[in-house]
Amino acid sequence: MSLVLYYFLTITAIYILMSWGLYLPYRVAHLHFLTVANMLISGYLAGYMVQTLEVPFSVALLAGFAAGGIIGYIVSRFIGDAPTFTVVIVGFTFIYISRTAVENIKAVGATMGMFGLPMVAGSPVMHRWTLLILLYALVVVVGFLIYRFEHSRLGRAASVVFVDKDLATSMGVDIKRLGRLVQTFSSLVAGGCGVIYGFIYRSFHLDFFTFHLVGIFMTVIFVGGYATMWGTVLAAPALYGLSLILPPAVASWRIVIYGAILIAVLVLKPEGLITRRLAHKLETTLSRRRKR
Amino acid sequence: MNKKMLSLLAVLLLIASIVGAGGQGDSGSSGGAGVVVEEWEIPFLNSLTGAIASIGEYLQWGAERAAFEINEAGGIAGKPVKVIGVDTALEPQKGVVEMSKIVEWALVALGPVPEPVIMAAAPIAVENEMMTMTATTSLEYAEKFFPWSISWFPATADRLPPLARDWAKDYGVKKVVQFVGIYGPWPGMAAAHVVGIKEAGAQHLGDVEVPQDAVTFGPLVVKALGMNPDGIIIACWPDKAAKIVQELKSRGWTDMEKILLFSSADDAALYTTGGADLNGTIIYNYINVDQDTPRWNAFKEAYQKDHNGLQPPSLSTNYYDAVYMIKRAIEETGVTGDPKKLKEERKLIAEAMFNMKNFEGLLFKWDMSDGVPTNKPGYLFQIQDGRKKLVKEIRN
Amino acid sequence: MQTFIAQVINGLSLGSIYVLLATGFNLLLLVAMIIHFAYPQVVVFSMYIAWVVLRYTGNSILLAVLAAIVSSVLLNLISAPLFQKIMKNREEVDINTTMVLSLGIGMIITDILSHGFNKGLPIAFPAKLVGETPILRVGVISLMGGQVASLAVGIVAVSGIFLLLYKTRPGRAFRAIAEDPNGARLVGIPLLRTGLESYALSGVLGGLIAVLLAMLLGYSSPGLGEQVAHKVLAVSIIAGLGNLAGGLVVGLALGILEALVQGYISGSWSNAIAFVVMLLVMLFKPRGLFGIKL
Questions:
Q1: Which of A84, A86, A262 sits opposite C96 (nearest CB)?
Q2: Phi, psi for B217 (deg, rounded to 5)
Q3: Contact A197, A114 (CB under 8 A)
Q4: Choosing among A32, A81, A96, which should be mutated to test the C contact, i.e. which has the most C CBs within 10 A?
Q5: CB-based burial label for B219 (10 Å; 0-12, 13-18, 19+)
Q6: Which of A82, B305, C27, C196 could join A86 via S-S bond, C-beta 3.0 to 4.6 A?
Q7: Does A8 touch chain B if contact means CB atoms closer than 8 Å?
Q8: Nearest 5 degrees, angle CA C85-CA C88-CA C94?
Q9: Domain extent for C125
Q10: Is residue C261, in this structure, part of any structural domain at all?
Q11: Contact between A89 and C287 using a beta-carbon 8 Å cutoff
């Protein structure tokens, strides 16, 4: 496989997973930016474990997931049913705290970053295949879980919470518990993504995890469609790929183009390119074909 | 055949062999033997868009200027050279894809720029055994990728203390506070300044951290002045450095030569933000803009013509020199550009540069020793009306 | 003691930036029900327009002020239909969608400033505007004209807008069409004209804020808006959305807190500590310290 295709596929998978990590809490109207902090914390933790403590990558990856999940769970105990603004502020706070902490911790390279992380398998080719397979296995697993969530009572409850919290409460939905569930899950996924993201580059630098990432993932969700999980699958490779194929003269205006696409979609197709109706229609068509 | 004819023939043969040998030894004027490329293409992984686009612009300018001059003089081994700007937009996720494309065909690459992209993309070059010339970063970053990278700067711990020491000594500075931007290698550079200050017999009172998103500098400056320094070192972003100087002035600081700005602050943003408030401050860097040589004068004139009269920033020469270094490496090693020999020719070029001796840079000569430059000077300048006036040259 | 006083003054100066921006942010919220996350970027754009006018008119401050106001008004009027379109079907403030829309607008503005002005380099305002010497200096205490002006105007702006919105007919009309356009129409309020006036008002304020920031900071850069946007949003939320007086108090308090942290603890931790304090406030008072005023 060519390196170009490898990086395109791996970064796209990260975009999909992280955008799902934002999508899921958004189902209950929470913009859960804590996920970017989870990427950073788990990533650096795993990097330290592998490089300094010589712990196997698989253990470090599990630790990364666990760290993300634990932080997400603890925080969600406070903000599981909080107003949207509170969740936004929490996310910003953790991003600032985690960045500042890493800047000041020499053991993880501080402002210089961590270099030369070991490969996760014996050779560069095996290293790449391992990460690629791992990432897409994660995409399948997380995608399956989100799909099951969407088509369950929990998913329907989330839809009600999104529209009207008071109505949801009166219908017996435990908003706090639901919020806790989605936030914890998204933080767990983000933790794992942070680990893999760094091992794709075999290095960690603070500028890998900035507020800019928040903008990217939000664009993916809202352009792809915030009402279903499938929009992300479409938008992530398209938006990432667009930045790679634009001719140089046009590429210099890339951010303006992204902003314009985002605005155009929000105004003309507020639900995004893949709406709930379209997704439902496709699912129905596919299931009819399967029955035949 | 009589003797006269034989003698004439011998002389003609002698002349022909001298001319032939001279032609082969003259590396610039004729097509090198075996060169298969029509044009030498050198990719430059650069931040042409994004937060440091203004820096990326003049780095690109320097590299293209070198290519222009080389082509005017006949090219590299008789073939023209072209620098291809490859934008990474300061994004590691873009940098890795662009580097992946480059390693499929390039002999050598310029960049990447800056550090986050270096960290993400340089390992790809190392894996493919291709030299990347990271000419704007410190040794501490470049050496992680040796021998497939070279450093443009000696070790921070060797390079910086003499500059800080001489400044402190020459201006009678006894108690120093340092403003440090929390970014990349700057804390390490700040630590090296402290070594130099102590060598001068001065006291380091403390560091004041400058956050990346600081918009006002009163609190930081008051903190610094509260320590009662008589000297200030500023090691942070150029525009913030300028604002700190202005804030110091507004709080009564008058000894401008007792403010030392570090090299990474020496950028257009410093001068456009600080203006006349910078007059009298001392700054250190690695090129002397007041040199008077034809080559430098031509470079400076061309830069000023394209940049509304601004002086060339010191980093603008780095990739200019890098392109010339590539030229010399290609010509000395007899590399042909044959895609079938890509791996071995990459190795030849890398080895040639890693220990290149007597390299004639735009402003001075230096030697590379295991990828690290030796005998490169540093300079102290005093800023006056947006220009740097040479105060002192310092060599290790 | 002198250092402490100097830091408090620094904090008030920094806080006045937050107050000014939060006031404009809250005004848009009150008259149009918009969470304009990129409001600081709009103001920074107006700063750049003012700078261009200063350059080409020999530093004519009056023309620069007018240009800043006009550009801010125009930007507001251009973005108004976009916000209105996406808000059409929502009956309450839709933070998420308007935040994302304003994120897109902010991205465009920042990138245009990076490309189209001064080669992306920071811009400096003339000394005549900024003030060449402090109006007061005692030891490390220093007070520039711009600092006094921005704080004074910030307080006046908050008071003036409060009076306008709550004590005058036009102000009540602005709030009426924001809260319930149908109801407003029924009582005879001309929607289009009133809506345009409300956007124009926030544009005028935005232009004035741009000039004040130019006086206070003396410079601007493409990333300046993004650097303060998080804190402006946080100040508005902590104070209580739409709460003008609350925004004044919280903005100044945040500025003082940051200055004291930078001065006595650490520059690199100032953001983190400031956000932790704000977070704790949010956890105990989710509707803001002074209550939502929408």
A1: A84
A2: -125, 5
A3: no
A4: A96
A5: buried
A6: A82
A7: yes
A8: 95
A9: 17-226
A10: no
A11: no
Neighbours of C126 (CB within 10 A): 17
Please state, in angstroms and as integers, the Cα–Cα distance from residue B377 to each residue in B163, B361, B365, C137, C291, following that order: 10, 12, 10, 42, 62
B387 DSSP assignment:
E
pTM above 0.80, yes or no: yes
Read off the DSSP letter of residue B291: -
Q: Any CB–CB contact under 8 A between B214 and chain C?
A: yes
How far does B340 lie from chain C, in Å, by closest CA? 41
Q: Give the pair of three-digit tokens for residue B90.
A: 């300061």
Q: Which residues 6+ apart lie within 8 Å of A291 measured at CB?
A: none
Strand order through the sheet with B231-235: B203-210, B175-181, B231-235, B259-261, B282-285, B378-384, B387-394
Q: Is residue C164 in a domain?
A: yes
Query: B95-121 burial by CB neighbour count: b if 16+ within 10 A, else e?
Result: bbbbbbbbbeebbbbbbbbbbbbbbbb
Share of chain C above pLDDT 70, in %: 97
Nearest CA to B382 among B296, B255, B292?
B255
- CA distances to A109, A183, A192 from A68, rounded to whole Å, are 21, 10, 7
> Which residue of chain B comes nearest to C144, CA vs CA?
B250
Interface contact flag, C124 B252, Cβ < 8 Å: no
Are the Cβ atoms of A29 and C96 closer than 8 angstroms?
A: yes
Inter-chain residue contact B87 with A112, CB threshold 8 Å: no
B371: left (phi over 0), alpha (psi -120 to 50) or beta: left
Report the domain count for chain C.
1
pLDDT tens, C135-191?
888 888 888 888 888 888 888 888 888 888 888 888 888 888 777 878 888 888 887
Cβ separation B274–C271 shorter than 8 A = no
Closest Cβ opposite residue B94 in set A207, A208, A243: A243
**Among A89, A100, A211, whose Cβ lies nearest the Cβ of C272?**
A100
Which band of pLDDT confidence, cut at 50, 70 and 90, is reported for residue B7?
A: low
Please provide residue C292's backbone torsions phi and psi, each rounded to the nearest 5 degrees.
Answer: -75, 140
Residue whose C-alpha is closest to residue C105's, from C47, C43, C58 = C43
A139, two tokens: 């995409």
pLDDT at C293 over 80: no
Take residue C64 and report the two structure tokens written for it: 């620069």
Cβ distance B48 to A2 less than 8 Å, yes or no, reads no
Asked if A208 is an interface residue toward chain B (Cβ–Cβ < 8 A), one would say yes
Distance CA(B190)–CA(C276), nearest Å, equals: 29
Closest chain B residue to the Cα of A246, Cα to Cα: B87
Assigned domain for C83 exists: yes
Residue A26, pLDDT score: 93
Give the closest of C101, C269, C282 to A89, CB-based: C282
Eight-class DSSP state of C119? G
- Say if the Cβ atoms of B215 and C224 lie within 8 Å: yes
Q: How far is CA C60 from CA A44, C49, C144, in A?
A: 52, 13, 21
CA–CA gap between residue B121 and residue B100 (Å, rounded)? 8
Any CB–CB contact under 8 A between A123 and chain B? Answer: no
Q: Which amino acid is at A75?
A: V
Q: B359-360 and B282-285: which strand pairing?
A: unpaired
Q: Convert the pLDDT of each residue in C27-60 to its tens digit.
A: 888 887 788 888 999 999 999 999 999 999 988 9
* Interface pTM, i.e. ipTM: 0.89
Q: How far apart (Å, rounded) are the C-alpha atoms in residues A284 and A147?
A: 15
The verdict on C252 touching B (C-beta cutoff 8 Å) is no
Burial of B63: CB neighbours in 10 Å, binned 0-12, 13-18, 19+ = buried
Residues B201 and B205: their CA atoms lie apart, in Å, by 13
Residue C257 lies in a domain: no
